[in-house]
Amino acid sequence: MSQAYEKAYRQSLEDPTAFWGEAAKDIQWYKQPLKVLDDSAKPFYRWFDGGRMNTCYNALDYHVENGRADQVAVIYDSPATGTVKRFTYREVRDEVARFAGVLVHQGVQKGDTVIIYMPMVPEALIAMYACARIGAVHSVVFGGFAPNELAIRINDAQPKLLVSASCGIEGKKTIEYKPLLDKALELATHKLDRVVLLQRPQVKAPMIAGRDFDWVEEMEKAQPVDCVPVEATDPLYILYTSGTTGMPKGVVRDNGGHAVALKWSMKNIYNVKPGEVFWAASDVGWVVGHSYIVYAPLLYGATTVLYEGKPVGTPDAGAFWRVVQDHDVKVLFTAPTAFRAIKKEDPNGELLKKYDIQHFRTLFLAGERLDPDTYHWASNLLKVPVVDHWWQTETGWSIAANCMGLGAFPIKPGSPTKPAPGYDVRILDGEGKELPRGQEGMVVIKLPLPPSCLPTLWKNDQKYLESYLDPFPGYYFTGDGGYYDQDGYLYIMGRVDDVINVAGHRLSTGGMEEIIATHPDVAECAVVGMADDFKGQLPIGFVVLKAGVTKPEKIIVDELAALVRQQIGAIACYKKTLVVQRLPKTRSGKILRGTIRKMIRKICDKQEYTIPSTIDDPASLREIEAQFRG
Ligand code: COA
Ligand code: AMP
User: What is the mean pLDDT of residues 14-40?
Assistant: First the structure.
């Protein structure tokens, strides 16, 4: 038993004010918070109310003023372009201050929103910090999303300005961003008349005079701008994440709670020291990128790696080991799917022999369940602890982890170990009754959530309540299913709602269904996730065609794949559709998606499946089962 963990965990739940009040001393405040935890408007909670600070100041200026000015803050390693560049804390601070000047010059003020649609280039991080510096709220949209998804986010966030680049580089492909963003701006109902665009050497994008401004030219004209104090409870960013429908949820992150929790996590969860190199191989468009590429390492005075490449193909499956060696990476954080990709290409780890990674300490994995096979492979190969940890866009840091800075527990493959301090994780049945150890149910977190977790959804308190708090009053509903074993280890077994995880990317099956339903030959459909050895899950659609459709099924299936790719993006990986005669339904006509989901999961797990006796139309499920097995 880890006593440090037990002590921290107990105190965090029994006296959250003392626990997080202590952690907050590590943050520089212009004005100390009046209250650590404000619970006067339950079930809405606010952390560090009355405190004034600036996230950018804490991550950059503070370190420049306190001995880290010449330490490398950001290493940009881009096998995609054959570039490696290092930026000191002073250099990043100066670039950020100047880009903040560009934002101000473009009319962006404190509280305004800015959309950042960028590939993995240092300018993405600079733009994010520049927003934080002036109290503007950024919303980064993952570069792999199609124009329609970008337009949805523009409409919801109502940005003053969009920051983008001429292209992204995806392995061996160059993806032109400008046509995508022009199309998104055309589709969006919120009219936006300012774009700052970074022209990358690989692609020179045509500019629209009066609307599009060149990054370099604007930087040359701009004056550096200082940090603006903001309330701890003011939003730092909005990050849209897939919910159960095509309308993503705008997760809000506040400034104060976020800075406190993230800085605390670097020592206590990741066990990194300031000055060491921490690498999160993710994308700035995802929460892992926000928290552990951009914010946490710099809040903590560490060095972060911004890697524009893939685990394989850039140039080979030794890419990660090369980066770990070249930059003296102590801790790597990525998704299990990245390791499955490496394992597929280099099953015996031959490429690792080319590199010296003896200083490498810990591998952290998250974003999807870490399957025991991948755990054993990575752990045998690297001979360092391989730590699974579970979290969500909504929380911004891990809900459960083996806290390496608080005395590690023995690892149990398949489990992210125990709830992190601050998280009172419980397992409930459908009626909200707590389940004993060993029984699988809905995973919930007793309120209040710790700092950094979403205080609400962007301009939508109602949806926040409906999605997360109403299902089980007094608890936050995670959307995941799971259980505790007899030793109190938590197991997260997968989503119990219409969300799936494809190659570590969170996607809405409901959103895919909405798109499929627009096909003229489709009467109704259900999309669920099916297990995939490489990507964790892949979507599969079951479709009923309208009566009288004569078009060959093969053509319809291809059209549906193309439609989802065009509307959501290639990352949806929607390729498989099975045409069936009927879908199972309740008496009131609701499609039994949960039942289909459970059946597919059991079949994929090679477990026995019996059709529930309560189903009115078992033949419809039998047909789906036969088609799927076929
Ligand atoms: N911009 C444009 N297109 C993108 C993109 C981006 N940023 N990211 C992915 N795509 C495209 C891919 O090129 C691919 O297109 P294709 O169908 O034409 O081949 C498609 O979307 C599917 O991408 P993906 O599922 O990522 O598959 P992949 O084979 O290209 O790569 C992995 C597989 C495992 C290497 C990759 O998914 C990966 O590194 N995943 C880790 C995810 C992660 O970091 N998650 C965050 C949590 S830590
Ligand atoms: P995202 O918001 O994109 O980070 O996705 C969050 C979802 O990914 C969670 O609700 C889980 O379903 C899944 N997830 C993330 N990390 C893990 C993990 N370590 N184990 C199991 N599932 C995970």
Answer: 98
Looking at the CA of 165, which ligand is closest?
A: 1
- Whether the Cβ atoms of residue 212 and residue 206 lie closer than 8 Å to each other: no
Can you give the pTM of this predicted structure? 0.96
Rounded Cα distance, 409 and 400, in Å: 12
Any atom of ligand 1 within 6 Å of the Cβ of 570: yes
Distance 628 CA to ligand 2 centre (A): 26
Is the shortest distance between the CB of 291 and ligand 2 below 6 Å? no
Please give the pLDDT value at position 616.
Answer: 85
What is the DSSP-derived secondary structure letter of residue 542? E
Report whether pLDDT(521) > 80.
Answer: yes
CA dist 378 and 156 (Å) reads 41
**Cα radius of gyration (the chain):** 24
Q: pLDDT by residue (tens digit) across 595-626?
A: 999 999 999 988 888 888 888 889 999 999 99
Distance separating alpha carbons of residues 494 and 84, to the nearest angstrom: 38
Report the C-alpha gap between 374 and 377 in whole angstroms. Answer: 5
Q: C-alpha 140: how far from its chain's center?
A: 11
- Record the tokens describing residue 250, joined without a space: 């705008």
The answer to whether position 32 is within a domain reads yes
Say whether pLDDT at 1 is over 70. Answer: no
Residue 593, domain extent: 503-629
Q: Is 375 in the pocket of ligand 2 (CB under 6 A)?
A: no
Closest CA to 151 of 108, 196, 190: 190
Residue 306 has which token pair? Answer: 């911004």
Q: Is the CB–ligand 2 distance for residue 416 below 6 Å?
A: yes
Looking at the structure, do residues 449 and 548 belong to the same domain, yes or no?
Answer: no
Shared-domain flag, residues 56 and 173: yes
Same domain assignment for residues 404 and 517: no
Count of structural domains, the chain: 2
Tokens of 379: 């752990």
Distance CA 537, CA 503 (A): 7
| Ligand 2 centroid – CA 392 distance (Å) | 5
The helix-helix angle for 256-268 and 16-23 (nearest 10°) equals 80
| Peptide bond between residue 448 and the one before it cis (omega within 30 degrees of 0) | yes
Q: Cβ(145)–Cβ(119) under 8 Å?
A: no
DSSP letter assigned to residue 390: B
Structure tokens at 4: 């440090």
Its sign, for the CA torsion 317, 319, 320, 326, is positive
Collapsed DSSP state (helix, strand, coil) of residue 236: strand
Same domain, 522 and 596: yes
**472 inside domain:** yes
Does one domain contain both 417 and 522?
no
pLDDT in tens, 193-239: 899 999 999 999 999 999 999 999 999 999 999 999 999 999 999 99
- 391 touches 559 (CB < 8 A): no
